[in-house]
Design goal:
Helix content of chain A: under 10%
Structural class of chain A: mainly beta
Distance between the termini of chain A: 20 Å
CATH architecture of chain A: Beta Barrel
CATH superfamily of chain A: EutN/Ccml
Number of helices of chain A: 1
Oligomer: homopentamer
Strand content of chain A: 35-45%
CATH class of chain A: Mainly Beta
CATH topology of chain A: OB fold (Dihydrolipoamide Acetyltransferase, E2P)
Shape of chain A: globular
Chain lengths: 90, 90, 90, 90, 90
């Protein structure tokens, strides 16, 4: 699972009907060394996230398990809003 | 999910019959920092997309859920045409 | 889905019996900018491909859907031979 | 499967209820050549791991198979604590 | 599917019981251009492989299909020992 920051949102009127009602947010993955900035991606919100929130994202087949509609063609879902992330040992 | 631009198309006469009737488009993924240009890939269209459209793409096992034929051996599907993509917070 | 060129083949006598009868080809993925050459990989042929053919490859769980035997432990399958690939808009 | 070190932990109060009761740990993947440090990621603990432990992580759809609740939207799980890792041949 | 060399092994006493009885080997993926050395990973052996063998590895959900126990939380399995790998066309 990936931690990132919600930095934007996406709208699409013409889309697969199975995506109706979902909120699409743009996530900027955290880079712990600031060397290899990973690309932004789009995730469906399932945690009430908003711009600026630090979020936990699940990708792959597990993503749609989070949604009420398991038939949604979605490969990334925001499953939580991060309260704290502690890196203790490096 | 990935945002990209439709930049081309692909034809294949000799193919798995389960792919018959599908439209294959070439997608150029957006790179937010223009540093690490990601490779183009091929996705099946399920949103009526055309050359030059900005599209939302689902990859992996979720891709074939979007299609009417869930037995299509497809790992990337265009599930929406993007109306607007707002990056608010960086 | 990925486009590549068939550049070789692989033989393995000692293998999972569920792979018996399959043809393993080495695929060199196309790189559109020739900067980040991606690594070759091995895919099972399901389109009658041969050395030098440009092919369409499906990866992940969708790959084995293409095969008659859905129990084959395979994560990449050649699902078509490309007739033309047009990049119209860059 | 990936070997890494547990370097931190994550808390999220507002989350998908199907994640309740799970422990989220931050894993730093081992890099064998120290050249391409891979990004840290978050995995659910299913082996009683703690900070500083070297762990074995399963990703993708196999991850949730490890958990008692197969409906957990999780894509990475710590499935073992590594006693020894021997690289014999290079 | 990936070709690599078995370079080591891993032991874990404290682990998900569904992993009991499996052999974990460390695989060094082949790099065809020696430029981007990919990271070593751990795969379960299902072909009787040993140190120094060149092996064929299946990743993702297809991996556990190879094992007798499809409930094993495993994302990479050695499915064959490579007899020959011919690159004919470059």
């Amino acid at each position: 699972m990936i931690v990132g920051e919600v930095v934007g949102s996406l709208w699409a009127t013409r889309k697969d009907k199975k995506l109706n009602g979902l909120t699409f947010l743009v996530v900027k993955p955290f880079s712990y060394d600031n060397q290899n900035q990973r690309e932004y991606f789009v995730a469906v919100d399932n945690a009430g996230a908003g711009i600026g929130d630090t979020v936990l994202v699940t990708k792959g087949s597990a993503a749609r398990i989070s949604l009420a509609n398991a038939d949604a063609p979605v490969d990334a879902v925001i499953v939580g809003i991060v309260d704290s992330l502690e890196i203790d040992h490096e």
